[in-house]
Write a structure and sequence with these properties.
The chain is mainly α and 166 residues long. The protein has a single domain, classed as Ferritin. Helix 2 runs parallel beside helix 4 and helix 2 packs antiparallel against helix 5. The protein is globular. The termini are far apart. Keywords: Signal. InterPro entries: DUF4142 (IPR025419), Ferritin-like (IPR012347). This is DUF4142 domain-containing protein. It holds the Pfam family DUF4142.
């Protein structure tokens, strides 16, 4: 009986922790920092795709990532500066590991497959994060930026999904 109470108690503590995490307010600064680093990663990987990709589709998609994410990061840096948020000047550790992984790959079809698969997954995560920011960010400029950027992220996602199925 005591074991059952202990298990129920642990379960309630876990549920309480989940509720607290769900009620945690949106962190504008954390979103900005992660989005800037993620944008820098998209640019870096896009440059690699232009050089190391085998298919024209991957090369063109890489070039689009460089252009679109450079533009988005410049806007995001303006918002960060106005909000007095210090942003990273280099990739966050998680993003650096991804960049290193792709840098170590050989050019060609294998690069294309890994790049496309990574971009599908990455853009799914980006869309979810930007949707949340567009609704929950406290900074109105950040909220507007996230909402305005969403259609571009969704376009990227659709483009790269088509590459995935070729």
């Amino acid at each position: 009986m005591q074991m059952r109470h202990a298990i129920v108690g642990i379960g309630l503590l876990l549920l309480a922790g989940t509720a607290v995490a769900a009620d945690k307010p949106f962190d504008d600064a954390a979103f900005i920092k992660k989005a800037v680093s993620g944008g820098m990663l998209e640019v870096r990987l896009g440059e690699l795709a232009e050089k190391m990709g085998q298919s024209d589709g991957v090369k063109k998609f890489g070039a689009k990532m460089v252009t679109d994410h450079t533009t988005a990061n410049l806007k995001l840096l303006e918002i960060a500066k106005a909000a007095k948020v210090t942003v990273p000047d280099k990739l966050m550790d998680e993003h650096q590991k991804t960049a290193d992984h792709f840098k170590a790959m050989k050019a060609g079809a294998e690069f294309d497959k890994h790049y496309v698969d990574d971009m599908v997954k990455d853009h799914e995560e980006d869309i979810a994060e930007f949707e949340k920011a567009s609704k929950e960010a406290t900074n109105p400029d950040l909220k507007a930026f996230a909402a305005k950027t969403l259609p571009t992220l969704k376009e990227h996602h659709e483009m790269v999904k088509k590459l995935q199925h070729k």
